[in-house]
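Try this one yourself first.
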């Protein structure tokens, strides 16, 4: 059980770091890179069995379709 918990904590840590990176990429207007990072975040959410929030989905839509 400890190994699974440690693994989940590690995956969450990576995911959270990617969220911070995503914010930086958004500020730099790097949409293509931000979309790739966002995809990685979604994959990690799936791995953790966590649903992507509606806010995250809205932000992704804005990122993809913004000027």
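Now uncover the answer:
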């Amino acid at each position: 059980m400890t190994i699974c918990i440690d693994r989940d904590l590690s995956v969450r840590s990576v995911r959270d770091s990617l969220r911070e990176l995503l914010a930086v990429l958004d500020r730099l207007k790097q949409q293509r890179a931000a979309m790739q990072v966002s995809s990685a975040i979604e994959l990690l959410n799936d791995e953790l069995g966590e649903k992507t929030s509606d806010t995250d989905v809205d932000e992704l839509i804005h990122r993809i379709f913004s000027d």
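Discussion: Helices lie at 2-27, 31-48, 54-65. Residues 29-67 form one domain.
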